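Sharing a chain and its predicted structure for anyone who wants a worked example. Both blocks are below, sequence first, tokens second.
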Amino acid sequence: MSQGLFAISASARKSTGYLGGGIPYLTIDGIFERPEAVRRAALELQYSAGTAHYPGRVARFPDGDPSLTAFLGTLVDIVVHEYIPLLMPVIGGNQQPRVRGADTDFAITDKHPSELSDRQRKPHIDAVPVFGLVYLNEVPRGGTLFFKPRSETEISPNKSGYPRAGSELELSGQIEGRFNRLAIYPGFVLHSGEIDGDWIEREERLAAPRLTQRIMFFF
């Protein structure tokens, strides 16, 4: 067991904001009491290939850890009571959806831009309506970018590598990837990791990888 590894810091700071089009997000800075320990523990996990649109590897923390269970329970309460009320004007309807629970894993982005598939060169939407991401990088590794298409035609892969704004995509918002920040946002908005800089083309992508904790909220 992790001896309180996923304990939330008493000094964690919440804030909210809006992406283009009035799409709300919620951030909690300083979410973990011991973020360096979370990163170390996560990097010791056994990673395997991610989904087709994810340019890297994923791993799960062992089931049954009480501090992780408590962490997810707190996040569900935050989503229910603080985030979904902000999202209701966007999704419509008179009845707030019920959150059935949350699941989590860790993800490392380490693919060289030349190794990306066509799907990984385009932004994506998630399979869940609300998504959470904890940025666990002490060195700059980018945040999350949100896009809207400039037309109704199919988006072409970015030939130069990771997704970015251009002739077919307009940047509608960005969440900065600060160390030990949790971001909660709608999974149904077109988005991508902000993968920029020389590090992704050098051995840094393996020696000091971009690590995030992903939290999926199920309705």
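Comments welcome. The mean pLDDT is 94.
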